[in-house]
Amino acid sequence: MKLKFALLGLALIHVLVLGAGFLAPYDPAEQNRDFPFAPPMALHLVDTQGHFHLRPFAYAQIYHPESSAAVPYEIDRSRMIPVHFFVKLAAEGGMGQSGEWRLFGVAPPHRLFLLGTDDFGRDQFSRLLYGGRVSLFAGLLATALSLALGLVLGGLAGFYASLPDHLIMGASELFMALPWIYLLFAVRAFLPLHLGAQESFFLLVGLIGLTGWARPSRLVRGVVLSARHRDYVLAARGFGASDFYLLRRHILPEALGVLLTQAALLIPQYILAEVTLSFLGLGVSEPAPSWGNMLADMQKLYVLESYWWMFAAGVALIPVFLLYHLLADALQQSP
Amino acid sequence: MDSLLHVQNLTVRYGADGQRPKSALCDVDFELAGDEALGLLGESGSGKTTLALALLGLLPPGGSVERGAIWFRGTNLVAAGPRVLRKIQGAEISLVHQEPALALNPVMRVADQVIEVLRAHQHLTGQQARAKSLELLAEVGFAPESGITDAFPHQLSGGQRQRVVIAQAIACRPALIVADEPTTALDTAAQREILVLLRDLHHRMKLALILISHDPAVLAAAVQRILVMYAGRIVEDGPAAQLLQNPSHPYTRGLLRCGLPVIPGSAQARRFDCVPGEPPDLAALSPGCAFASRCPERMEVCGVCAPAETRLAQAQRVWCFKYE
Questions:
Q1: Contacts of A241 in chain B (CB under 8 A)
Q2: Residues B205-243: tens digit of each pLDDT
């Protein structure tokens, strides 16, 4: 039950971010300089006269640049912007290709900002979806990397014991003693400051994954250590099975359960690592969005004070973390 | 004699660092013909299992062959490298374990476990291997339609599991099967089944068999020749019937008297016979006969030096000063 709920929830979130190219109304890098820090626009079905509309609509927002209010926008209830479904994206700069189908949108020159905009007037809703791709998959890939490393190194250490064991476990202790975030800073600071979005993504994944191998490898080692003396392993050796075969067929499958639980714990941890690094400007670089660099705006006090919708990425992290931890819990309890 | 296996002065020690090494086997020397069924008889700790593991090159960490040789078809297994050993293990010599419940991987289907033995030594396609594994399982008494071939080990009884292990053992048509107490973990009926099966396979497939047991009755049912072991040494060697009816070594005699009486109140049951004392500490053996401290017929010479091989009539050998 728990397991199903967690898996369904996570699947839903991942489908949402993967479908960003269809679900997001705008390109994540598209700027609207006329709408800096626009507040979220609500969708309505009933207008001011009490008429019901089947097609949802939003009210236009008017920007008053000369106003001294923290949020210098006024809702103009006389202008309704109807939302259209299955629209073709207009060709207007940015990365978006013209002619792409989108789930919904409004007719230009109107804009629809479901979660408001940032200081460049970029649609936060679109950025949240596109940025989720980066953040969620950085966590997944980094976890895959460190589990793969942990599986190989832990398998070797546990199976061959003696010298390989001493070396690998010694190294893992060293890695566990290192404060990883400073290590990441150091390594990231060492590399060229400006990298393309893709390079910086893979660099980040590589760094996080490589520094995280110690814990999974220790877990795997423990399982292998107890499994390699089982009678059926000795029996398999007795009919001429090679070391590699024994590890692959009889020993490492036992580590699967531990690894799955470990994965469910590591993924949110690594998502947070990506978010932290990007927040500090060491991760995915602008204009490509990630939940980390979306939150980076919050470093400014006036943003923190006035524009609550800029928290969106932080709020989005909460269900992701809760679901992953629920998954870990369910995996651990499952027989 | 043209023998399949010749174990020559095999001496095995177990020694953890800093401890006095234990001599698990000492000058074990015997030959085995290609169609012979040999029994190893002895108490726990007499070195039977160590001998079986040494034959397959599977001594546990800390155990090492100190001297001697195991000649198998012209190859010295003691000196052979892991590559050569791996070609022999399972293909030419195979081992049947004591605990069938533990010797099978609990999460693999029975047929797959037979297939993995086949695939370790032969290049077969998936279908060929599958067909062959069904054949092998049929050979140990499982019809393909019984559904056992696709069962998991926990769904089988002890006797059925041991049959699967035997199917694994005969998968590559080995020349020698070493069965280490194959019936110990089984109930009486299953014991009988397995013994009959082993004897059958021995005759039908013309393979040599080394059957290890602490129970003389088990050996009597299945083998032609028996080696009696005590404290890692062979103390008596002879044809099964002769040795069981007419034991020469005091230890063999003691051991044969130990069988529990089947009928309560019978003359046999009035007294519990046993071999008095405990097996000796293998790390601190005296220079004399290892059995001397428990021997009811001890002589002065027994504590001084070890007895040599004495040949009695009809291929019987005994290591005891009484016969020298």
A1: 86, 90, 116, 120
A2: 888 999 998 888 888 888 889 999 988 888 899 898 888
